[in-house]
Structure formats: structure tokens, C-alpha cells
């Protein structure tokens, strides 16, 4: 287990050729390292941040980077405590990742209080750049609105015009249902009903039968992680898909698809910000990542990589670690990296990049353990994310 | 047929059946807990972790040795039961003379260790385990589609539950066991090795948990956290049934599965709490539990 | 099948003096000195967290160690108070002392309602009733609008103390929290060493005898239950001001388990035990956070080793060695 991955040794050897000035920055990767989101963030996100530092050649550019990490156990009080301590005492300049909506909102507030920088990759709630936006927050990878605009829109347009939701009974589930309902209705579809299941749940057969009884064409799964995996497995078991209804997993990660297996998951559509097998850039990175982590990067881990890279570029451009100047620079510069391609950061902190509608391959199409998805459509960033004007972010809209 | 509170009878029938399936898991798990409590006076908080180990046992047998579902149904409970016996011999047996509280805390600690270790080695995303080929597919019952595997779960758990009940209440071995808990010295004087019997009983109770775990492996994902929250629900089932009552645990297990199933139709958000509401009511009115005979 | 009633929880012997013995006076003075210096050595927010949990564990110890009642649902009072306090500070704009008071009062009422039902049962059934009600409180916290569900109540402001003194500086706030928790701990000590505490002790040791002596046992049990819930609430309410948030963590049943761990680890029925236990558990969670899942394993090992080897807890063992109640 590594608490501190000091890159100072690398920096020291390179300093001989580096410019005379040196900037010290300290990155804190704060995420779930033992709970339900440990596989899609966890130590993999720490690795991603470390790879970004190496790929950027921070040492060669006179930026001395130290990375620390901690487990927030998905509890907002622990997350806010660690964040405070990092900023206040340990001299952390930027906090990365932070999956789950409740912990992310807590860290966003603490970051604003200390005037540092928060680059979120793991959390889903679109409130990070809407009602709860902060000038110091940058939300990289995805949000509930983008998921709804991807899967919700595509499924409705392809004929799935009546929906029934299986919703995890907490803020994230409600937000996902709300955002997807809006998209479905905007595209001429109709929501016939929804059932809220306790979170976390283990048996979904009862709720699935209610969904079946509704007669809706599409069953939308507004839940995450193990809940989604179990819902899909049990839907297959009860022959719900064979009976003619379609499942729409609104938030699925590559790790979830892997644990379902191609046999069960085939044909499922999902929206993602990143898939390892999209182009040479993603493949090259993923190959290096997998060699160390054992699995290809999830979109959350990819977001940590891209966020770190963009942050370091801004540090180089500013030439100091002044947070306000760096955030301004990050929003001013176009984002460009091998994983997400070109994009930009909106004033409210929302990173605008393309999202992808994917379909899970059948076992016959799949050629390897992780060869699981094929791309169906690209959704441009402007279409995927909610327009800033509708978001209600006070400081971004103020003139 | 009539409509009940706006729910068509077909839907209701389907929900009752699903409740019964979930009740099967509660019954097997609470049975194990009741056997251990009734005969050892230990509240086995590691039961959820042992259930998880049963599911992992099946997964490991398949992935490391190629042994399939049917042998795993026997082998995994034996292996997990043996681990349970080792724990009983080395640690739990030291606590029989003390308050319940210590047994509960020790097994709670054991559960934390077991779950933590599995999380470190297998992550938390869950591992897939396929339904055995012989039980794939399902039957159309008219009011619902019943997967064959779920039907098997009901049959297997009913057989195991009533087999256990028969063994403890109706056989000579069972009478020794019951006698040993009433008066260990006297039974020992008859030449019966009481400590060994108690150890084997713990192993058997743990084996029941592992059996439930193997049954669960194909329908829920095999996950280190799968037993963590289940334990207090099962615990509540045992309390409602009457602590130590074998038949109470079985009937309450099935019954609460059905009640929980109905809650999922009428008030889905409340399905996680309904068992605790019932527990509070039962404890207020009949503290010895529905089937208990001494408080 | 018998559920044996004669197995009693092992408790260190207590002296039955009502006044404070000299060595305990020294302990309280040393404790105060340590706590006054603490924020200059460790991070103040962390120090405040230790204080809140120390008070929580002391409140729990009042019920278990002195009342002999094992509650498995103390998270309900801790968590509910923290929600009400956070709501009062954020939505109603109350000052810290009033917000904390509101939270504490809520827990007192909750303790009265649940306690009056729970004390009718004994032993493991008592524990189960408290667990059942705590689960219902958790469900309420999850469903009610004002608690914010999974997100909790975030960015809770610390308003000016008494409407005058700004409290945003953690160092300043630490001393306010210290006053509350140290006062609470002293008050609990006072209760346990009063005539009321002596009656409690006699009920714990032998309930039928206390009944035959003419004590209305249930009234005493209810009082200690309400007091314990109230102080648990005080700790929870203060915690929500410290962290600027209230969340589901504080009402979840694992929190009820954690406070049992703290109390046992330190030594139940002792004065200092819960404080030491709380300090160790909180420190562990804080400094081992980077170890991920190993924290759970280490916590489990502490449980197992504690139960097998140090049932009296750290302070219990020390107290036996020194032959003085600590």
C-alpha cells in the first residue's frame, strides 16, 4: 500500500537540465479504496494521476509533484475531514477524483472555503456545476444529465417510447430519474411509472415484475454499481428481455459490464465518456495502465489522468501554484489529451467533451476478456451536457 | 378473482412467490443462526460473512479447480464449516461462560476481518457465477415466469430446513444435543463428548450459512459485501421467531420473506425497514418471539 | 434450550465514594491540561472529532457501564441531533449554542419515547428493541425531506456564538467544543457518583433486590436512558457544527457498533475508558485511511484481541494494575 508516491527523486535527477525556477505542487487523490466504487476509482485513479505526471514530464519542466491518496469510505464526513486536513495542514493544492455525489458536494464546499482546486472525475451529480457550483470546482468526466442525454435519448429515438424506472432510493437515483424523464419526454416518449428500491438492494425480482406489469417498452435502471449489475442479471433470469422489454442501464462502468459477462449483458446500451479501445491514443494509454493495474482504466480513472494533465499544463503556463490563476488558465486553455480528445472547460466548471453511446458486444463478437463494447454513436459535448444557462449556477451566470 | 387494493391477482401471486423465494434465504440463514444460538448460546455475527464465504467457495472451486455447482453445494459448506470449527476451537469456545455481548463482539470482529480480507483480494465489483445448465430456463405459470433456478431454491431450502428440524427435534442425536445444552455435566457423565458435539454444531450452523451462500451465488453477484447488511435482517428474523427456536426461525424466515415481498408492492421504499417494525411490535407484545417458549 | 441469565458482564470494581477521590481529581486536571494543549499539537478539527466521540462514548458508557443496559441503537440519538442541529443552523439561522441545544433536546425526547418502550425488556431483547427503533430512525432520516437523504445536510454554517463571537476559526471553535464536551463528561461523572448513580449500580448488580428495597427500577432505568440519549445527542449536534455537515453515517447501525467498540476498547464502567477508546478508534480511522480495506481488518483484529485478552479494556487493565478506579 502506498500512501505517498514521492516523485522527488525523479525531479532531482532531472533538475540539472530543468529551468532554474521550480514549482512545488501536491496532488491529493481522494476516493473509495475499500467500498463499492473501489474498482472503478480506488488505487487505479492514483496510478492514473501518477502516469499523467510522468507523461507530462513534470520534473523536466521544473514542476515538483507529490501525490498522496486516501480512502473516504463513501462517507461525506470523512471526505470533508480529510479534505480540510489536506488543505489546511498538509499543503495539498488540488484534490482529484472523489466518487459518489454526497462526498463530492462536501469536498467542493471545503475546497471553495480554502480557495484551492477540486477536479472531480468520479461523481455523477450534475449539481456540482448547477445549484451547488463553486468557482474552484471542475467536473471532468460525466454527470447525470449527460447520461440521460446519451442513453435516454438514443433509446427513445429508436422506438423505446414508453419507460418504467427502477430507481435507487437516494439523491443520485432521483436525479438520474429526473434528468432522464426530461429527456424521454422531450423526445416524444412517455414515462409510465417508477418504483424506488432501497439502496443498496440485493433482490430486484419484485421490482422487475412490477416493471414488467407496467407494459412499458423500456425499463430504465436509475441506479449504480452492484445494484445495476444485479438488476440486469435478474432481469435476464426472469426472461424479461426475451419477453420483449428492453433494459436501459443509465450508469454502467466497464467494470460492471465485465462482472456481468458478455453473455448476460449483450445488447445493452450505455453512455460513457471513455472506452479503452477507441483509438491509438486510448489503446496506448490503456495498455500501459493495464500492465500495472490488471484491468483497463474505467472512465473515472481516465478522467483523473486527463484532469491531472490539464492541471499541470496550466501550472506550467502560470509558472506558480496560485490556485485562482491556475483555474482561470484551465478554463481559458482548450483541453486536449489522448483520452478525451479536444474540449474546453465552461465557466461553471463543466468540462465539455464528446460522450459515446456504446453497446455491449455479444460473446461471438468479443475477442478478449475486456473486449466488451462497440461504439454506436458519438454525442457532441454541447448535446450531452446541460447548457450553462439552464443550470442555475449563480456565479457563472452573474454578469 | 378480485382486485386487492388495486393490484391485479396475477401480480399479487407473482409477488407472493418471489417473497417466498427470498424467504427461503432468510429461513436457511436464520436456521443456522438459531441452531448456533440455541445450542451454544452464541450470537454468531459472523454469519453474514460465512454466507459470503460459501458463495466465494463455490466461485473458487469453479475457477481454480473446475468443480461445478452440484459438488460445490456439498463441498463449499464442508470447507466453510471446517473453517468455522477452527474458529470455534481457537476463539469462540473461550467465551461460553460469559455474557452474550462478548460472543457477539468477537464474531462481529471476525466478520470485519473476513470481509476485509476478501475485499483486498477480490475487489468489490462482484464476480459472475453462472446458473447450472440443468436449471436454466423457466416455467410459465400463467401469472408469472418462474425461473427454474428459483424453484430449486425453494425446494432445496425447504428440504434442508425441515431435515435440520427433524434431526434436532426427532432423533437421538438431536436429543443428546438438546440435553447437552440443558445440563452439559450430566450428559458428559453419560460418556458423550460434549465439547466436541458443540464444536460440530457450530460447524453445522456455519455450513448452513455457506449452503445459503452457494444457493445465492448464481442469482446475486458473488461479492465480499453480500452478507454485511443481511446479517442484521436475519438476526431480526431469529428474534421475531423466538431466539433458539428452530421451527420459529424456519417459519418466520419464509413468512417475513412474503411480508417483505408485499411491502415491495405497496410501499417499496419501506421494504428495508418493515422487518424491524415487526420486530419492535413482536418484542413489545410477545418478547419471547412468535414461537419461543421462554423469555 | 436455556438462555442463561446468570452470566453477567464483567465489570471492574467501583469504589462507592460520592465525593471525588484525590487521584481522580488529578486525572481530571491532567485531562483538561492535555485537552487544552491538544489543538496546538494535532490538527484542531481532528481534535474536535476526538472530543465529540469521547462524549458520545461516555454517554454510551453511562448506559452500559453504569446502567448495565446494552443499547444497539445509539446512533439514532447521535445522528438525529446532528440533523436537527444542522437544520437549525442552516435553515433557521440559529447561533451555535441554540442549534446544539435544539439537537440535544430532540434526542432527549427521542430517548424518552424509545426508552419508555425499550426498558420493559431485558438483556438481548432490550438491545434488539433499541436496534429496531434505530433502524426506523435511519429510515426516517433517509426518507424525510429536510435531511437531504444520501447527500445529508451540507455546508452548515457556524454562526456567531451568542450572535457576537465569530466561530469560523477552528482554533477558536475548539475551545467552545472543549467546554461543551468536558462539561458533559464532568456532568456524567457527577451522575455516576451521585446517590442516583448508586441506585443504578445496585440495579445493575441485582435487580430483584433493588425492587425489593422499594426502588422503582423502571423509573431509574428510563432516567439513565434519557440522560444517555441526551448526551449522545449533545455529542452528535456538536459534531455537525464541527464538520459543517450532517449525514447518514451518523444514524447508520455501524455507528452504534462503533460506539460499543470505543467503550469496550477503553474499558466500560470506567471514567477514562470511553475517552481513551474514542481517541484510539478515531485516530486509527484517521491515520490508517490510506490503507483502504485493511482498516476493516485491523479494526476486526482489535475486536477479537480485545474480547479474547483484554475484556476489561485498556483503562480497566490499568485500573486493576494500579488498584485504583480510573
UniProtKB/TrEMBL annotation, chain A:
CDD domains linked to this entry: PBP1_SBP-like
Keywords: Amino-acid transport, Signal, Transport
Keyword Transport on entry: yes
Pfam families: Peripla_BP_6
Parts forming coiled coils: none
One Gene Ontology biological process: amino acid transport
InterPro entries xref list: BCAA_transport (IPR051010), Leu-bd (IPR028081), Peripla_BP_I (IPR028082)
All copies of domain Leucine-binding protein, residue ranges: 25-361
Cleaved signal peptide residues: 1-22
Family: Belongs to the leucine-binding protein family.
Name of the featured protein: ABC transporter substrate-binding protein
Native species: Seohaeicola zhoushanensis
Automatic annotation (TrEMBL), chain B:
Main localization (coarse): membrane
Cellular component, GO annotation: plasma membrane
Keywords noted in UniProt: Amino-acid transport, Cell membrane, Membrane, Transmembrane, Transmembrane helix, Transport
Entry's transmembrane regions: 12-35, 42-62, 68-87, 99-118, 149-168, 200-220, 232-259, 266-285
Record's keyword annotation contains Cell inner membrane: no
Tagged with keyword Transport: yes
Signal peptide start-end: none
Membrane topology of this protein: Multi-pass membrane protein
Localization per record: Cell membrane
InterPro entries according to UniProt: ABC_transp_permease, BCAA_transport_permease
GO biological process: amino acid transport
GO molecular function: transmembrane transporter activity
Family affiliation: Belongs to the binding-protein-dependent transport system permease family. LivHM subfamily.
Name the UniProt record assigns to this protein: Branched-chain amino acid ABC transporter permease
Native source organism of the sequence: Seohaeicola zhoushanensis
From TrEMBL, chain C:
Cellular component terms (Gene Ontology): plasma membrane
Main localization (coarse): membrane
Localization (cell): Cell membrane
Listed GO MF terms: branched-chain amino acid transmembrane transporter activity
Protein's UniProt keywords contain Membrane: yes
Keyword Kinase belongs to the record: no
InterPro entries referenced in this protein's UniProt entry, alphabetically: ABC_transp_permease, LivM-like
CDD domains found in the cross-reference section: TM_PBP1_LivM_like (cd06581)
Name of the molecule in the record: Branched-chain amino acid ABC transporter permease
Lineage: Bacteria, Pseudomonadati, Pseudomonadota, Alphaproteobacteria, Rhodobacterales
Membrane spanning residue stretches: 26-46, 53-78, 98-117, 124-141, 171-191, 222-239, 259-284, 291-310
Organism of provenance: Seohaeicola zhoushanensis
Entry keyword set: Cell membrane, Membrane, Transmembrane, Transmembrane helix
Topology versus the membrane: Multi-pass membrane protein
Domain of life: Bacteria
A Pfam family per the record: BPD_transp_2
Amino acid at each position: 500500500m502506498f500512501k505517498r508516491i514521492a516523485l522527488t527523486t525523479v525531479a532531482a535527477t532531472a533538475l540539472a537540465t530543468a529551468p532554474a525556477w521550480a514549482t512545488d505542487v501536491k496532488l491529493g487523490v481522494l476516493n473509495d479504496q475499500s467500498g463499492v466504487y473501489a474498482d472503478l476509482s480506488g488505487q487505479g485513479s492514483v496510478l492514473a494521476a501518477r502516469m499523467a505526471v510522468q507523461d507530462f514530464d513534470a520534473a523536466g519542466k521544473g514542476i515538483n509533484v507529490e501525490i498522496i491518496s486516501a480512502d473516504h469510505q463513501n462517507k461525506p464526513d470523512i471526505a470533508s475531514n480529510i479534505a480540510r486536513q489536506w488543505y489546511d495542514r498538509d499543503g495539498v493544492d488540488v484534490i482529484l477524483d472523489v466518487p459518489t455525489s454526497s462526498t463530492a458536494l462536501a469536498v467542493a464546499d471545503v475546497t471553495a472555503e480554502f480557495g484551492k482546486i477540486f477536479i472531480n472525475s468520479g461523481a455523477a451529480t450534475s449539481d456540482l456545476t448547477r445549484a451547488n457550483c463553486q468557482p474552484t470546482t471542475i467536473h471532468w468526466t460525466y454527470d447525470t444529465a449527460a447520461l440521460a442525454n446519451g442513453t435516454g435519448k438514443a433509446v427513445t429515438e429508436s422506438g423505446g417510447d414508453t419507460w418504467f424506472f427502477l430507481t435507487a432510493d437516494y439523491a443520485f437515483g432521483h436525479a438520474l430519474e429526473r434528468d432522464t424523464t426530461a429527456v424521454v419526454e422531450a423526445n416524444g416518449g412517455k414515462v409510465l411509472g417508477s418504483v424506488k428500491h432501497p439502496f443498496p438492494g440485493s433482490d430486484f425480482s419484485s421490482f422487475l415484475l412490477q416493471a414488467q406489469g407496467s407494459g412499458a417498452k423500456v425499463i430504465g435502471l436509475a441506479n449504480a454499481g452492484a445494484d445495476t449489475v444485479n438488476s440486469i442479471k435478474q432481469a435476464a433470469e426472469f426472461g424479461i428481455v426475451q419477453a420483449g422489454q428492453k433494459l436501459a442501464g443509465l450508469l454502467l462502468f466497464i467494470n460492471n459490464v465485465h462482472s456481468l459477462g458478455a453473455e448476460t449483458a449483450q445488447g445493452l446500451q450505455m453512455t460513457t465518456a471513455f472506452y479503452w479501445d477507441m483509438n491509438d491514443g486510448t489503446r496506448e494509454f490503456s495498455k500501459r495502465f493495464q500492465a500495472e493495474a490488471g484491468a483497463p482504466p474505467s472512465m473515472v480513472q481516465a478522467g483523473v489522468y486527463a484532469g491531472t494533465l490539464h492541471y499541470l499544463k496550466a501550472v506550467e503556463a502560470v509558472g506558480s501554484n496560485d490556485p485562482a490563476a491556475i483555474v482561470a488558465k484551465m478554463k481559458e486553455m482548450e483541453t486536449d489529451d489522448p483520452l478525451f480528445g479536444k474540449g474546453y472547460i465552461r465557466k461553471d466548471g463543466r468540462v465539455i467533451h464528446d460522450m459515446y453511446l456504446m453497446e455491449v458486444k455479444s460473446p461471438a463478437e468479443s475477442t478478449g476478456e475486456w473486449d466488451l463494447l462497440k461504439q454506436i454513436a458519438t454525442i457532441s459535448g454541447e448535446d450531452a451536457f446541460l447548457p450553462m444557462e439552464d443550470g442555475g449556477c449563480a456565479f457563472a451566470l452573474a454578469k | 378473482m378480485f382486485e386487492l387494493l388495486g393490484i391485479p391477482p396475477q401480480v399479487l401471486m407473482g409477488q407472493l412467490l418471489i417473497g417466498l423465494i427470498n424467504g427461503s434465504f432468510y429461513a436457511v440463514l436464520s436456521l443456522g443462526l438459531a441452531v448456533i444460538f440455541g445450542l451454544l448460546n452464541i450470537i454468531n455475527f459472523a454469519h453474514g460473512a460465512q454466507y459470503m464465504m460459501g458463495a466465494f467457495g463455490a466461485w473458487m472451486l469453479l475457477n481454480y479447480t473446475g468443480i461445478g455447482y452440484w459438488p460445490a453445494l456439498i463441498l463449499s459448506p464442508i470447507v466453510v464449516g471446517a473453517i468455522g470449527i477452527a474458529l470455534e476451537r481457537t476463539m469462540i469456545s473461550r467465551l461460553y461462560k460469559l455474557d452474550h455481548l462478548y460472543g457477539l463482539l468477537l464474531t462481529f470482529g471476525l466478520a470485519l476481518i473476513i470481509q476485509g480480507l476478501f475485499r483486498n483480494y477480490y475487489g468489490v465489483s462482484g464476480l459472475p457465477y453462472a446458473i447450472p445448465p440443468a436449471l436454466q430456463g423457466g416455467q410459465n405459470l400463467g401469472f408469472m415466469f418462474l425461473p427454474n433456478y428459483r424453484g430449486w431454491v425453494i425446494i432445496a431450502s425447504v428440504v434442508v430446513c425441515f431435515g435440520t428440524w427433524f434431526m434436532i427435534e426427532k432423533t437421538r442425536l438431536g436429543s443428546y444435543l438438546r440435553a447437552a445444552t440443558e445440563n452439559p455435566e450430566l450428559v458428559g457423565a453419560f460418556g458423550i463428548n460434549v465439547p466436541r458435539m458443540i464444536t460440530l454444531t457450530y460447524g453445522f450452523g456455519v455450513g448452513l450459512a455457506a449452503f445459503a451462500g452457494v444457493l445465492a451465488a448464481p442469482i446475486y453477484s458473488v461479492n465480499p459485501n453480500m452478507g454485511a447488511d443481511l446479517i442484521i435482517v436475519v438476526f431480526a428474523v431469529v428474534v421475531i421467531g423466538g431466539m433458539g427456536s428452530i421451527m420459529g426461525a424456519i417459519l418466520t424466515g419464509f413468512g417475513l420473506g412474503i411480508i417483505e415481498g408485499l411491502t415491495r408492492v405497496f410501499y417499496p421504499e419501506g421494504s428495508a425497514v418493515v422487518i424491524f417494525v415487526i420486530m419492535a411490535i413482536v418484542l413489545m407484545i410477545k418478547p419471547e418471539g412468535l414461537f419461543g417458549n421462554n423469555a | 434450550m436455556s438462555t442463561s441469565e446468570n452470566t453477567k458482564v464483567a465489570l471492574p470494581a467501583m469504589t462507592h465514594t460520592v465525593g471525588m477521590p484525590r487521584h481522580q481529581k488529578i486525572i481530571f486536571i491532567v485531562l483538561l491540561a492535555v485537552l487544552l494543549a491538544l489543538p496546538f499539537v494535532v490538527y484542531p478539527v481532528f481534535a474536535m472529532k476526538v472530543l465529540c466521540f469521547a462524549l458520545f462514548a461516555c454517554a454510551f458508557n453511562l448506559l452500559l457501564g453504569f446502567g448495565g443496559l446494552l443499547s444497539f441503537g445509539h446512533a439514532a440519538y447521535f445522528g438525529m441531533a446532528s440533523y436537527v442541529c444542522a437544520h437549525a443552523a442552516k435553515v433557521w439561522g440559529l447561533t451555535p449554542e441554540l442549534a446544539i441545544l435544539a439537537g440535544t433536546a430532540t434526542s432527549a425526547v427521542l430517548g424518552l419515547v424509545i426508552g419508555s418502550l425499550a426498558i420493559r425488556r431485558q438483556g438481548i431483547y432490550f438491545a434488539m428493541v433499541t436496534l429496531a427503533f434505530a433502524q426506523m430512525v435511519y429510515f426516517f432520516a433517509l426518507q424525510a425531506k429536510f435531511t437531504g437523504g444520501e447527500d445529508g445536510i451540507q455546508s452548515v454554517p457556524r454562526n456567531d456564538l451568542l450572535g457576537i463571537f465569530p466561530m469560523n476559526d477552528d482554533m477558536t471553535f475548539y475551545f467552545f467544543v472543549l467546554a461543551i464536551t468536558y462539561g458533559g463528561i464532568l456532568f456524567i461523572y457527577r451522575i455516576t457518583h451521585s446517590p442516583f448513580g448508586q441506585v443504578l449500580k445496585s440495579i445493575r448488580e441485582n435487580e430483584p433486590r433493588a425492587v425489593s428495597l422499594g426502588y422503582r427500577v423502571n423509573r431509574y432505568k428510563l432516567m439513565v436512558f434519557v440522560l444517555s440519549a441526551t448526551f449522545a445527542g449533545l455529542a452528535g449536534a456538536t459534531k455537525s457544527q464541527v464538520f459543517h455537515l450532517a449525514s447518514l453515517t451518523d444514524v447508520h447501525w455501524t455507528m452504534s457498533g462503533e460506539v460499543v467498540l470505543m467503550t469496550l476498547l477503553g474499558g466500560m464502567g470506567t471514567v477514562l475508558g470511553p475517552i481513551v477508546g474514542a481517541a484510539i478508534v478515531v485516530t486509527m480511522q484517521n491515520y490508517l485511511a490510506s490503507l483502504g480495506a485493511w482498516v476493516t481488518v485491523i479494526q476486526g483484529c482489535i475486536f477479537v484481541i480485545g474480547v479474547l485478552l483484554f475484556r476489561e479494556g485498556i483503562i480497566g487493565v490499568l485500573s486493576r494494575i494500579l488498584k485504583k478506579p480510573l
